[in-house]
Amino acid sequence: MNTPSGLRDPLILWISFILVLILQVIACPKPFDKVPASWLPMLLIYWVLSRPECVNIGTSFYIGLIWDLELGSLLGVRALALSLLAYSVASNTALLRNLTLSQQTVLIIPLILATHGLIFCIERLLSQALFSSQLFWSVLISGLLWPGLFLLLQKLRGQWKIY
User: Fold this and answer.
1) pTM
2) Which residues contact 115 (CB under 8 A, 6 or more apart)?
3) Which residues of 58-78 are buried (b: 16+ CB within 10 A; e: fewer)?
4) What is the pLDDT of residues 46-71, one digit of tens each?
């Protein structure tokens, strides 16, 4: 396929977000169904680091709205949380790009925790959301999966020639 990179790259990015949105709601096998990974925030972090000109705060807001609609939750909660996550990553891109994967993981875990914490706080203020310790397990699992996801996406990015 001989399409210009300018059109193909955003299409691939949006397809990756759609796949992860689907992955967020697919039922996991029994041992893992109680503690899902935070696929969407991790993918957002990766693309903001890798392609900040394509994935930015505005993109994060739209993806958050889609996530809110998908979950049937209060509209705008996840949009706000993902926008703040994208802002945090974008404002520290130079730092995050120069860290090793283990150092990135140490910073990714609090970013994802803050994102989920903000979502919980807003939902708690506006509705009767209940706290669950699954939040911490989800964040921890996401941190453990970050290096593998990062390396996989780097490999795919090279194969698809997304620069």
Assistant:
1) 0.91
2) 38, 41, 81, 82, 84, 85
3) ebbbebbbbbbeeeebeeebb
4) 999 999 999 999 999 999 999 999 99
